[in-house]
């Protein structure tokens, strides 16, 4: 089985449909099949919601790829192998396919797993990445906050920060972006206060969505239940 | 003087004209005046080259804003104050204006200096940032290299790395992107070799331009004269 078609990993940006690139739009609209990653069959896909207005189900097939959480690497590998085979079948039928990812396909996305699994099955398979606007740039734009300039250094840390020597990173970088900060917020706020940085932090949740929230008084977030899709930008004053 | 118009800081992406966002295109085409930063009058602007095909000089004014290097903060401030006044004059005439920046307007760009100077002159002036695809995402896409995933940490360091404890950053982050790496390359290669990381680094110059270069055998770059617009992605194997 060889695959004359190409798979495009398309970054659709973090929420605002207008932050799709022209290349992303062209690729999405010319793809015979658009693969949409979902956490279970029929689940809502944020990436699809962002670009739904650009798709035409009368001319192209929209296909869910189920990507479930797996505790074991073997289960995960089997899932990606099955998904890869499904995508390759489309390419073998001489159609191009697009795989939607929020933000950018190579920035905390699952796209690479699909690409790796496809290359394992067929080393020469044609895969192209269409980069997108990532959440860190969209959040900075929403706030109007300069992320970095001149000789400044940026650190990006995801999820929980257990054992991550976050304090050291806060001390050594000009700007620190903490992704998916919700569950660690109280501990983060403590570290910021210790360093006099709490007034130099901004919280952004659901960036680019109608429910977007920007909070500059970050200490007011203590003890509150926060959105999973939230980040904190900490920018040390020059 | 009040300014009823809006200034849009538009990120045009790092080189490929198709990496402009739909929002960027709409804003550029509806702006009465497009301001193009140049290093001296008549100099070539990379940002303008990227989006020239979308502009229509018969319907909109394209205006150079000269941004020269200044050793002193006062000279720099005076320059931005003059540029800010020029932009505000356009907005006062009820036109919207766009300011072009390569990549993203809040990621190693000069846009914030214009915005700050305008707000100093008129606190309520209307300024909107249109984020763009930054060089780190476009370079990762060109290479097909995952930048970060899951709980990984990313560091971005610009320019020279004197006193930057680069070794420590290489040891503590999963992925390190070194921007404008050309002048520091030999020292960087030495650090990479010490750590067995030279096989896990990729060099990209002029990403998205016809003369784009990708080099995976980074040791071959030793002692070579390199392009100013070049970066290195170092990704520690999992």
In brief:
The structure is a homodimer of 238-residue chains. The first copy, chain A, has 238 residues and is of the alpha/beta class. Helix content of chain A is 30%, strand content 21%.
Description:
The structure is a homodimer. Chain A is of the alpha/beta class and about 240 residues long. Chain A starts with 5 loop residues before the first strand and ends with a strand. In chain A, α3 crosses α4 (about 110-120). Chain A has helices spanning about 20-30, 45-50, 75-90, 110-120, 135-145, 165-170, 185-195; strands spanning about 5-10, 35-40, 60-65, 95-100, 125-130, 155, 175-180, 200-205, 215, 230-235. In chain A, the strands form 2 sheets. In chain A, strands 3-2-4-1-5 form a 5-stranded parallel sheet, sandwiched between helices. The mean pLDDT of chain A is about 95. Helix content of chain A is about 30%, strand content about 20%. Chain A is built from 7 helices and 10 strands. In chain A, β2, α2 (about 45-50) and β3 (about 60-65) form a beta-alpha-beta unit. β6 (about 155) of chain A pairs antiparallel with β6 (about 155) of chain B.
Question: What key phrases describe this protein's structure?
Answer:
21% strand, 238 residues, five-stranded mixed β-sheet, five-stranded parallel β-sheet, alpha/beta, homodimer
């Amino acid at each position: 089985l060889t695959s004359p078609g190409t798979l495009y990993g398309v970054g659709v940006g973090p929420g605002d449909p207008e932050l799709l690139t022209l290349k992303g739009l062209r690729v999405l609209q010319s793809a015979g099949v658009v693969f949409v990653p979902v956490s279970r069959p029929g689940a809502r896909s944020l990436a699809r919601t962002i670009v739904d207005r650009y798709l035409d189900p009368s001319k192209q097939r929209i296909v869910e790829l189920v990507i479930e959480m797996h505790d074991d690497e073997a289960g995960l590998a089997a899932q990606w192998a099955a998904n890869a085979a499904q995508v390759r079948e489309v390419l073998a039928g001489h159609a191009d396919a697009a795989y939607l990812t929020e933000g950018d396909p190579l920035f905390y996305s699952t796209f690479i797993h699909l690409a790796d699994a496809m290359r394992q099955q067929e080393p020469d398979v044609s895969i192209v990445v269409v980069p997108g606007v990532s959440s860190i740039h969209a959040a900075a734009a929403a706030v109007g906050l300069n992320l970095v300039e001149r000789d400044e250094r940026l650190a990006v840390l995801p999820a929980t920060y257990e054992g991550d020597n976050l304090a050291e990173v806060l001390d050594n970088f000009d700007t620190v972006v903490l992704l998916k900060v919700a569950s660690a917020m109280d501990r983060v706020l403590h570290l910021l206060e210790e360093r006099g940085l709490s007034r130099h932090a901004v919280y952004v949740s659901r960036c680019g969505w109608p429910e977007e929230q920007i909070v500059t008084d970050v200490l007011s977030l203590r003890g509150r239940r926060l959105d999973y899709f939230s980040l904190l930008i900490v920018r040390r004053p020059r």
